Amino acid sequence: MKKTEVAVIGAGYWGKKVVREYVRLSEETPDLHLFGACDLSRTNLQYCRENLGVTHLTTDHRELLAWPGVDAVHICTPNETHYEICRDALQSGKHVMVEKPMTLNAIEAYTLIETAKEKNLVLSVGHIFRFNNALNKVRVLIRDGFFGQIFHLRLQWTTWTPPIQGRDIISDLAPHPLDILNLLLNRWPEKVTCRAKTHRRDRLEEVAYIIVDFDNGVSAHIELSWLLPSKTREVSIIGSSRSAKVDCLSQHVDVFEEDRSYALDVKPNNTLEAELLHFKETIQNNSLSKSFTIKNSGIIGAQVVGLIEIAKRSLREERTVRADSLYGKTPVSSLYSILRDVSVGEDTKVHDQVNLYGCRIGRNCKIDAYVYIEEDVTIGDNCKIRPFSFIPTGVVLEDDVFIGPNVTFTNDKYPRSKGSWRLLPTRVKSGASIGANSVILPGVTIGENALVGAGSVVTKDVPDNAVVAGNPARIIRYRAALIRPVNLVPSMP
To answer: Which CATH number is associated with domain 130-266?
Structure first.
């Protein structure tokens, strides 16, 4: 099999360890080779050349991406650079492993996922504890009921370190504990509460406590600190039958029962080696069009980034924040989306920066970014609503409706900031389409299979199959009637 040629971007503290591991694996693994490395520091590059034998070196990641023969890159640069370098690498056709956090916001993370999908590239995130033998042993025991009913988990991620310029502890340390919770419980939190403090500087937190609640009643708390002596990476599991403490560094597991305690038989492994080999295998399976699972996928990385944003929102607003809109059948990718008392059908996708309040959305719909939908709006199945549209209370969209960008519905003929008003319901019937920048006045019905031209102002009812345009909108022609027998495609304009 052809060798997978990998280059490392970023050769600082962690990057040197990654380079060293790739060098060792290049000597021991016939189908993996470290091609070269990149870092802004010539001192770091000199170290790679003199101590690790790396010959292809550069200070410019774009030059590295242009090197012929490089199949993949492993990005170990500062957190704030992850998105730009990942984007450049994917657009250059390179498979990517990026260290955590994947990006600094979920919108960027999901953008990278879409790019990787479009270009059929592997996108992995450095959630290295997914390859930890001790945690995977405990994961299996939880699944098999060894601990009985799981009550609570405690995760301690603490050490002493001088203040790190430009970094806060939530972005830097929380990704691993949040990811481990998903690894062990196979679910993501429903609610997040975060409190944090800074002590040695004016901004950027150094101590944080994150409490998360799951939909099955399990709770967990995470302690993060850069002020406690000695490095601790521990996970405690409390169950109805027994409990356990996992030292994630030594991969030692102690089990506690009512009248005894004992250590589990776990063989510690080289988690970095396991992660790099998994990256290589997923690249090779992808090139052979074989089915494969990425244990540390971009989707997992994006969910973790979303949870970090949720935690920071909780800290900022001093309240518990619901996180269940981030995942599941309705994959909302950013905390900037707000969903309150919303019913969403199966396979419906809600994008970033969306506000939905007390509305009902059917199956297989697509709600694009920057859409605002108010209370008591009903949207049928198979509808598509493009960005920057506003749908107020009183609007009903039937099945198969298309709403173009910047469409504005209204529900009161004489709106005012205060005082009484009269709600005038609006209905858009099945198969109708409304073009971009249209305004729909209140109290009208847009008929089945009707088409409203872009920029129109609709002031009165639109008949079935009518095509209207202008200000005010007038009928300019009719479309063929929409035929709806089973398994037939609706007629096109």
So the answer is: 3.30.360.10
Residue with the two structure tokens 């506003």: 390
How many residues appear in the chain? 493
* Exposure letters 214-226 (e unless 16+ CB within 10 A, then b): beeebbbebbbbb
Residue with token string 């607003």: 317
Confidence of residue 235 (pLDDT cuts 50, 70, 90): very high
CB 113 within 8 A of CB 140: no
Q: What is the pTM of this model?
A: 0.69
pLDDT at residue 146 above 90?
yes
State the DSSP code for 341: S
Q: For residue 55, what are its two tokens?
A: 């010959």
Query: What tokens appear for 4 in the block?
Result: 């997978």
CB proximity list for 188: less than 8 A, separation 6 or greater: 181, 182, 214, 303, 307, 323, 324, 326, 327
The partner residues of 136 in beta bridges, in order of sequence, read none
Q: Which strand ranges, in their side-by-side order, compose the sheet holding 123-125?
A: 56-58, 32-38, 4-9, 72-75, 95-98, 123-125
Cα 229 to Cα 159, 225, 332, 350: the distances in Å are 6, 10, 39, 44
What CATH fold (topology level) applies to the domain 4-128+273-298? Rossmann fold (3.40.50)
Does residue 184 surpass a pLDDT of 90? yes
Higher pLDDT, 289 or 30: 30
Domain ranges of the chain: 4-128+273-298, 130-266, 337-478
Do 383 and 403 touch, CB atoms closer than 8 A? yes
Report the half-sphere exposure of 55 (CA within 13 A, side-chain side): 2
> What are the residue ranges of helices labelled H in 186-224?
none
Cα 475 from Cα 272, distance rounded (Å): 66
Per residue in 77-87, is it b (16+ CB within 10 Å) or e — as a string? bebebbbebbb
The strand ranges marked E within 257-342 are 261-263, 321-322, 338-340
Coil, helix or strand for 289?
Answer: coil
Do the two domains 4-128+273-298 and 130-266 of this chain adopt the same fold? no
- Given pLDDT bands bounded at 50, 70 and 90, which one contains residue 436? very high
For residue 483, the tally of other CB atoms under 10 A from its CB is: 10
CATH architecture of 337-478: 3 Solenoid (2.160)
pLDDT at 350: 84
